Amino acid sequence: MQRDQLADFLRRRRAAIGPAQAGIADGPRRRTSGLRREEVAMLAGMSVDYVVRLEQGRSSQPSTQLLGALARALRLSDDERDHLFHLAGHQPPPADGVARLARAGLLRMLDRLGDTPALVLSDLGEVLAQNWAAVLLTGDLTDFSGDRRYVVHRWFTDPAARAVCPPEEQEYHARQLVADLRAAAGRRSGDPTVAGLVHRLRAASADFRRLWAEHEVAVRRADRKTFVNPRVGRLLMDCETLVTPDHRQQLLVLTPADDEARERLELLRVLGVEEFPSRATGAPDHEGAEKSSPEGIAG
Question: DSSP letters of 109-173?
Answer without folding.
Answer: HHHHTTTS-EEEEETT-BEEEE-HHHHHHH---S---GGGGBHHHHHHH-GGGGTTS-GGGHHHH
